[in-house]
Amino acid sequence: MKKKALFIGGTGTISAAITRALAANDEWELTLLNRGTRGDAVPAGVRVIHADISNEAEAAAKLQGLQWDCVCDFIGFVPAQVERDWRLFRGKTKQYMYISSASAYQKPAVNPFITESTPLANPHWQYSRDKIACENFLMEKYRTEGYPVTIIRPSHTYDERRVPLAVHGPKGSWQVLRRMLDGKPVILHGDGTSQWTLTHNTDFAKGFIGLMGNAHAIGNAFQITSDETLTWRQIYEIIGDVLGVKPKMYFVPSDFLNAVAPDYDLEGELLGDKSWTVLFDNKKLKRVVPGFCCTTRFDQGVRRTIENILAHPELQEPDPEFDAWCDRVIAAMESAKASLLK
Question: What are the backbone dihedrals phi and psi of residue 129, each rounded to the nearest 5 degrees, phi first?
Fold first, then answer.
């Protein structure tokens, strides 16, 4: 008999690959609880319960009498949401998996080598502090009443819809790709030599599924990332190579970018995350999920992503405001250099 899993969400950047993999898996029967806004992303054989999880009474009515081997919340960002999940699922699931974030790890980074025991503290990003608070609530429930929690900490995971970038606007990656194609300079933070880890969502899915229903995962936190690290210069060079252009990289200090971008959350994105070299140690995951290995190099994964974006105009969303902001930042930097050379 198949085990029963419930995903809250299940069609996002991280979760869609897991949903697709489980749809072809003989061990699990998967149900999604979501509002049904991305019905096209749900594979055949996956059941959907249409409900808004933020409406606790509605969700409780739709879930009444159901038991699960594993429940995972992919869209829990603040403590009130995981507290709601605890009320909905205590006594009704053998495992509750929570998607936290590797951005919760200590910033400024004292040591670039990151394990699950690295302290959690991020003064630069409210998103990360909220994730830490969610973890604290769940682990307290595990310690005091045996609530069967497993914490998952992804880092920068990408899919076929967006290219992972250092600095971009609220409408995603297309405008940066457009600048590359047009021969315009693209902004990178610092000098581009900090190292970063990018994980394809299909690789993430392997580690995640290995933790589902795994007795060794209960009461533990796991990071799931690739072992491949690249500098931001290398990342942009690879993206340019796929596009058939040599990107004109323009380097700007992270502090400066944060100061001149009040409409973008660059303090969190950069000072609280991307500007630091981080090297993830996945030994804990590999002990619990023997054979786990990421097999998609970034140059392979991002090629598929870019080819998909170029083939689908609906993914090519212009961001003229961000484009103009990039031009202003670069012009200001060039003007400052010119004034000092007079």
Answer: -65, -35
Does 108 sit behind a cis peptide bond, omega within 30 degrees of 0 on the bond before it? yes
Least confident of 106-115, 251-260, 292-301: 106-115
What burial letters (b/e) apply to 304-320, b meaning 16+ CB within 10 Å? Answer: ebbeebeeeeebeeebe
3-state secondary structure of 237: helix
| Strand extents, DSSP E, 17-164 | 28-34, 47-50, 70-73, 96-99, 113-114, 149-154, 156-158
- 61: Cβ–Cβ under 8 A, 6 or more apart, which residues? none
CATH code: domain 3-158+198-224 is 3.40.50.720
- Sheet with 96-99, edge to edge strand ranges: 47-50, 28-34, 3-8, 70-73, 96-99, 149-154, 220-224
CA–CA dist 342, 335 (Å, integer) = 11
Closest CA to 151 of 237, 73, 49: 73
Helix (H) or strand (E) holding 21: helix 15-23
Assess contact for 112 and 195: CB atoms under 8 A.
Answer: yes
pLDDT in tens, 106-159: 998 889 999 999 999 999 999 999 999 999 999 999 999 999 999 999 999 999
Residue 308 has pLDDT above 70, yes or no: yes
How far from 194 is each of 114, 190, 300, 332, CA to CA, in Å? 15, 8, 21, 24
| pLDDT at residue 39 is higher than 80 | no
Domain ranges of the chain: 3-158+198-224, 174-197+229-276+297-336
Report the distance separating Cα 229 and Cα 194, nearest Å.
Answer: 10
Q: Round to whole Å and give the CA distance between 146 and 144.
A: 6
Evaluated on CA atoms 252, 257, 258, 264, the torsion sign reads negative
CATH architecture designation of domain 174-197+229-276+297-336: Alpha-Beta Complex (3.90)
| Cβ–Cβ under 8 Å, residues 88 and 96 | no
Tell me the C-alpha distance between 43 and 15, whole Å: 12
> Shortest CA distance to 101 belongs to which of 139, 140, 134?
134
